[in-house]
Amino acid sequence: MQVDRHLSVSPPGVPLLSIDRVTKTYETRRGEQVLAIGEVTLDLADQEFVSLIGPSGCGKSTLLHIAAGLLKPTRGDVRVRGESRPIHAKEFGMVFQDAVLFPWRTIRENVEMPAEVLGLPKDVYKPRAQELLELVGLAACGAMYPRELSGGMQQRASIARSMIHDPELLLMDEPFGAVDAITRENLNIELQRIRTLARKSVLFVTHSIAEAVFLSNRVVIMSAKPSRVSAVVNIDLPADRGSELMESVELNDLVRRIHRELGGHAHP
Amino acid sequence: MQRENVLEHAFTGALVAGFSIFLVIAWQLVTSWHLLPTYLLPTPAETMQAIWKDLTSVSFWTQQFLQTLLVVIVGFVIAAAAGLIVGPLIISHPLVERTLYPFVVAFQTMPKIAMAPLLLVWLGYGHTSKFLITALVAFFPVVVNAIAGLKAGDERQLILMRSLRASWWTRMTKVRIPNALPYIFAGLDIAVVFAVIGAIVAEFLGSANGLGSLVIVRQTNVDIAGLFSVLFFLAVMGSALHFIIASLGRKFTFWSQSTDAKSARR
Lengths: 268, 266
Description:
A: alpha/beta, Rossmann fold, 8 helices, B: MetI-like fold, globular
């Protein structure tokens, strides 16, 4: 466990995603310039899980939208595998705080939606949808409609949806922020398992330190607006993480460490 | 669950039937105690006779009922088609919306019925003017609800589509139109009832046939039972049209929690 103060240090090899000195300025209705993101530099390696944590409204979601190519950075550069370009639709999947399923589609049709929009061949995505439903534990729910499922199950469906086109990167914006604490813990264990099996890289926004530590290879702590990276904490926990780890001393040490770094801005 | 539903429906049905019987008895008592003269309020039996006479008269169907129904349906179809084309056009670009929406609001707050005489002057007393008066009255609920519906739905559904770099057409067909359907059907439901009003008013103003003109004829003849009969057939027509639209709505928006609540009714 070490706190890395040399923020430009990146994992070896060409990173999957590089956010290089990115700033974002908003114009308010009165025409004032508001700096949402101070200057953030962040690299995400292949199959790495990086969490962004920080006080509310510190621009974490904005950063995620910039990574997704939905917003342009005011200054700075986003690179995908070393190329300076916005990420392609096929290269990433998105998960929101709520499942954001389409209520007129069955769970299976919801999972298949991105593949349909991207125009993938049916014989590729149909079997894949079945595999993903099994992976997230919804094999029996394919024909059901979203409203027939609990919030936690809907969120599993949206995770399956984010992977239907087999992207390398998942962008998750507080995906478990709206479910109860017990479901959240289960979903954390599930996500850990799923992303290890599916070998995905994840950029994960959260308010929960314990969740960040449990899931991540690195936790990036951001300061309040205008946000900057205030510290990066490497999480040297075994790759294979189960529920027993939630209670471990190592995890709790890291949680306390990050809590101190945040200056008590977040709940552990 | 199923059985409870059946019981609940039976209970509601019994309540409605009971209340109808109560109303007819009250009506009978009002007439037989001469609380109102029968030339103002016919007895239930006289009214039934008038309805039966119309029901069995061929000319009533061909010259009156079906004429009005034709005006209602053609007017409604014009209004629905126009509303469903104009609605998406208005929201196609913020600039278009900002330019055109004030006109929609201005037109909406004006009683469209008042334009009927103008349309008669412009188009004459044929079918065209009746179709257009009906369409004009029925158009606004469709267009306003289509606009509200196309703007409804979770913003993040569109963010997801943007993350997939979906085209305008894909966003429209896969997200915005499905989201709009409950609103559109609520609008069509209001529109079909409005269309009956439009058709009747158009026929009041100048028409040799149709239920609207029949109302005027029977009023002139002080045929109150006959007037009641026309009102009865208008209620039947309105209810039937409402039922058809509502059933279609339930079929296409089964996933929506409450179709009836989703309406920008004005």
